[in-house]
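Known limitations

Structure tokens in this collection are predictions and should be treated as such. Users comparing against experimental data should check residue numbering before alignment. To illustrate the layout, the record for Biotin transport system ATP-binding protein is reproduced below. The input appears on top and the generated tokens appear beneath it.
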Amino acid sequence: MIDVDAVTVDRGGVRVLEDLSLTVPDGEFLILAGANGAGKTTLVRTFNGLITPESGTVRVNGTPVETDPLAARRAVGMVFQHPRDQIVATTVAADVAFGPENLGLDRETIDERVDDALAAVGLADRRNARVDELSGGQRQRLAIAGALAMKPSHLVLDEPFTGLDAAARRSVRSRLEKLHDEGTSVVVVTHDSRSVLGLADRIVVLDDGTIAADAAATGGLAQTVALPENTFERGRPDDPE
Ligand SMILES: Nc1ncnc2c1ncn2[C@@H]1O[C@H](COP(=O)(O)OP(=O)(O)OP(=O)(O)O)[C@@H](O)[C@H]1O
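Generated tokens:
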């Protein structure tokens, strides 16, 4: 469980999150929506200590992130906005192995984790491919595999559909659905919730550093909560499945 309690964050002298509280239970698929600059990325970066709040506490599985940032980083897998920034090796398998290698695991366990993570994102057949041979969607899935190989209880993806064509979006979306079905908690940060709305248990909308809406993502969200006017302004409707 991720438990954000009364968190305030300033960035460059500006208040970006204001006394914000949010709990993400294990196994939940949460959409974190809101217009550009609402504070979504800042919020998720507090989940594993990449950003330390001015006040308030973030706990991951009961432990404050600042007490044990390494445990938080293992428990919360993070896939950033630009997957290219996360790719560290030349081949697909070596890239996914990087995280587990840093945990000091033995070779057999590392290979097992690499195989499992690549299978989970549908890249098992590209194990030995060079990363630069992959398409945009495959790179995004590789970044997800890298996070999964750390066996996180929560997977956080920041704008995972940016720059992907319709086929790649569908492919990433279906992988997220499968991971959620298998019990991983998934948090998707997006200003275009339509790409994942059908998969989510809940949607939280940030507006200017506070929670503007928090609702179950079922039964026609638009009818159940009043979303800020600009929530979807930059979004494109997803292609029909
Ligand atoms: N390092 C920083 N220095 C100064 N201001 C920052 C910094 N990081 C973020 N901000 C500001 O904090 C606000 C929230 O940024 P954040 O990236 O969390 O928003 P977001 O909702 O994720 O939006 P986006 O979709 O544009 O990334 C923005 O106004 C941004 O300009």
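For this record: The longest strand covers residues 14-24. Helices lie at 40-46, 69-75, 92-102, 107-120, 136-148, 166-181, 221-224. Please report discrepancies through the issue tracker.
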